[in-house]
TrEMBL record, chain A:
It is a multi-pass membrane protein. GO terms for biological process: transmembrane transport. Belongs to the binding-protein-dependent transport system permease family. CysTW subfamily. InterPro entries: Bact_Polyamine_Transport, MetI-like, MetI-like_sf. The chain crosses the membrane at residues 7-28, 62-86, 93-114, 126-148, 182-208, 228-249. Pfam families: BPD_transp_1. Residues 58-246 form the ABC transmembrane type-1 domain. This is ABC transporter permease. Its main location: membrane. SUPFAM superfamilies: MetI-like. GO terms for cellular component: plasma membrane. It comes from Herbiconiux oxytropis. It comes from the Bacteria.
TrEMBL record, chain B:
GO terms for molecular function: ABC-type polyamine transporter activity; ATP binding; ATP hydrolysis activity. NCBIfam families: potA. Residues 10-240 form the ABC transporter domain. GO terms for cellular component: ATP-binding cassette (ABC) transporter complex. This is Spermidine/putrescine import ATP-binding protein PotA. Pfam families: ABC_tran, TOBE_2. Belongs to the ABC transporter superfamily. Spermidine/putrescine importer (TC 3.A.1.11.1) family. Part of the ABC transporter complex PotABCD involved in spermidine/putrescine import. Responsible for energy coupling to the transport system. The complex is composed of two ATP-binding proteins (PotA), two transmembrane proteins (PotB and PotC) and a solute-binding protein (PotD). Transmembrane segments: none annotated. It catalyses: ATP + H2O + polyamine-[polyamine-binding protein]Side 1 = ADP + phosphate + polyamineSide 2 + [polyamine-binding protein]Side 1. The keyword Nucleotide-binding applies. Gene3D superfamilies: 2.40.50.100, P-loop containing nucleotide triphosphate hydrolases.
Length: 260, 385
């Protein structure tokens, strides 16, 4: 029974990581067709960096992702703070209202966003992309930060006030340092959600502001090129880099403050 | 200390607080003197924490005013009030070292670097944690954390420090040690301490004066000995220490008290008592004496039956039942007398006696206000009805 379990566990891992491994392997495949491995090459990486359309969409996605994540984190922080700290009237209503975009199908959100933007005369582009992505990332950021804040002793900020700190100093010296890991988590979660989004982007992207997922999706019609494998590999490496950095920082913090 | 020229450290006038329709602090007046160790003592839910939070400014009073050092601070925010608070959870900043926790206020108030260092070191010496400056709060024991919180509260030399049940989280032995430590530190720094607690022993041990609170009212403000020996009400008598209560009536001459079913009992009736008016007699268990007696002998005292006994180490406690059915507690310090009394069999007849001075005459109140915590009291309520 135990042997069976361990084999199932192995299979699950293979299932989870095989696509990523294949992606990396084929990004170095010299063959034009992706199912045959002919030999090792850096050619696709070189082509990737010459593909202006693809790079442009990467830039768009990164820009939209960063702006949307910053907005979601800041607004999420403020809403979480208000909802956790103050006896807001209709608190349950606001919590529900903020979380609704998580339940509403994205396609519905996309259509309604487009309706609103076009009736407001707002041309689709970076601005509409960012607004659309904030709608879906804000609930995530708010949830993460609400959890972190409600686990914080409320007398900490009272103590800071009592010791003469203004609300800003209390935030800078006490709340921010204590919530930093969660703020970072909210930011990263928002960024990746925005970066990989297709549905909302389909409705809110304009001419010249095609995001990376949209660009990749459209190449499906002409067939995937090995160049995309190279791009995917770079993204996986970048993601691992971020995880490693954050993870190391977290581990340090955990190791630095052992419980007695 | 010259009380006639110095304004009180804290003066509350008609201070009251309601949450919705629920009035948790009834309008009250209170003066706390400079340099005093003042305790606010009461059961949980009596409004003492709300009262304290109104002094700090965390809660806005529904009515009345707060004066600190003679100046009205109703419009002054918490951060600008010259007082600090020691929180029940200590509220140490977990990301800062002990040193930085203590230095927090001085840094916020932009004190010169060199002075910060001197004063933080001083404060840490005061609480005997000089060697722990670089530790994080998580690396300290509960008692040490409490000391850091105290150092942080006094480092800015506020006029007043408020302490919210700071010993609640410590174990019994440490709590006793800290009571004397707190008192020593308070004397050393000379800052007015307002100590909020539900623990009567803590309040009695440390305080110069105690305010006893119940249901949003201050019932009595007095020194620990006065509170204990001369409680002003039935609640104070039974909440502080244990106390036997006998309901009686002032006799026709207005000089003695008659307890229904028992007869005339010793009591010092204050002048001006109205004959026939109902009173409550409060008698401390250790101020009663008890002796064995033959069932038929005529005796001077109150007849009772020994119900049970308990040996507590430093004293014996006896529960006796009066002929009315009321159960009273008698305590006797360990020693020869106690040993003799300890040999009396359960169910034997005994006689209780006390001096007139030991029986304090209190106004009779609705028995609903008396706490049902002491077994003697609850039994008496039934007997009195």
């Amino acid at each position: 029974m135990e042997r069976l379990n361990s084999w199932i566990a192995r299979l699950v891992f293979v299932f989870l990581y095989l696509p990523i491994a294949a992606l990396i392997v084929y990004s170095f495949n010299s063959s034009e067709v992706s199912y045959r491995f002919d030999g090792f090459t850096f050619r696709w990486y070189a082509e990737l960096f010459r593909d202006q359309m693809l790079l442009e969409s990467l830039r768009t996605s990164a820009l939209v992702g960063v702006i949307a994540a910053v907005l979601a984190t800041v607004i999420g922080f403020l809403s979480a703070f208000a909802l956790v700290r103050f006896r807001v009237k209709g608190r349950a209503f606001f919590v529900g209202a903020i979380l609704i975009p998580l339940i509403v199908p994205e396609i519905v959100l996309g259509v309604s966003l487009l309706t609103v933007f076009s009736s407001a005369g707002l041309p689709t582009g970076i601005v509409t992309l960012v607004l659309g992505h904030v709608v879906i990332t804000l609930p995530l950021a708010t949830l993460v930060l609400m959890g972190a804040m409600s686990s914080l002793d409320p007398s900490l900020s009272e103590a800071a006030t009592d010791l003469g700190a203004s609300p800003w100093v209390t935030f800078r010296r006490v709340l921010f340092p204590l919530l930093r890991p969660s703020i970072l988590a909210a930011f990263l979660l928002s960024f990746t959600t925005s970066f990989s989004n297709i549905v909302i982007s389909t409705f809110t992207a304009g001419v010249g502001t095609t995001t990376l997922p949209l660009r990749i999706y459209s190449t499906l019609r002409t067939g995937l090129t090995p160049e995309l494998n190279a791009l995917g590999t770079l993204l996986v490496v970048a993601t691992l880099g971020v995880i490693l950095l954050v993870g190391v920082a977290q581990m340090r913090r955990i190791l630095a403050g052992p419980r007695p | 200390m010259n009380e006639t020229t110095e304004p009180p450290a804290v003066k509350l006038t008609g201070l009251t607080k309601s949450f919705g329709a629920n009035r948790v602090v009834q309008p009250l007046d209170l003066e706390i003197r400079q340099g005093e160790f003042f305790s606010i003592l009461g059961p949980s839910g009596c409004g003492k924490t709300t009262l304290m939070r109104m002094i700090t400014g965390f809660e806005t009073p529904t009515g009345g005013s707060v004066e600190l050092d003679g100046k009205n601070v109703d419009a002054v925010s918490t951060k600008s009030r010259d007082l600090n608070m020691l929180f029940q959870s200590y509220a140490l900043f977990p990301h800062l070292s002990v040193y930085e926790n203590v230095a927090f206020e001085l840094r916020v108030r932009r004190t010169a670097k060199r002075e910060i260092d001197t004063r933080v070191r001083e404060a840490l010496e005061l609480v005997r944690l000089g060697a722990f400056a670089e530790r994080k709060p998580a690396e300290l024991s509960g008692g040490q954390r409490q000391r850091v919180a105290l150092a942080r509260a006094v480092v800015g030399r506020p006029a007043v420090v408020l302490l919210d049940e700071p010993l609640g989280a410590l174990d019994q032995k440490l709590r006793k040690e800290m009571q004397f430590e707190l008192k020593r530190m308070q004397r050393e720094v000379g800052i007015t301490f307002i100590y909020v607690t539900h623990d009567q022993e803590e309040a009695l041990t440390m305080s110069d004066r105690i305010a006893v609170m119940s249901e949003g009212r201050v019932l009595q403000v007095a020194s620990p000995t006065e509170i204990y020996d001369e409680p002003a009400s039935r609640f104070v008598a039974t909440f502080i220490g244990s106390c036997n209560i006998l309901d009686g009536v002032v006799d026709a001459q207005g000089t003695g008290v008659v307890v229904p079913g028992v007869g005339a009992v010793p009591a010092l009736v204050p002048a001006g008592a109205v004959p026939g008016s109902g009173v409550a007699l409060a008698i401390r268990p250790e101020r009663m004496s008890m002796r064995a007696v033959g069932a038929s002998a005529t005796v001077d005292g109150v007849r009772a039956t020994l119900v049970e006994r308990a040996f507590l180490g430093d004293e014996w406690t006896f529960h006796v039942r009066l002929e009315t059915g009321a159960v009273m507690t008698v305590s006797v310090p360990s020693g020869e007398t106690a040993a003799e009394l300890g040999s009396i069999a359960d169910g034997a007849a005994v006689v209780l006696s006390w001096s007139a001075a030991a029986a304090r005459v209190l106004p009779a109140e609705a028995s609903a206000t008396a706490p049902a915590s002491a077994p003697a009291t609850s039994a008496l309520k039934g007997a009195a009805a």
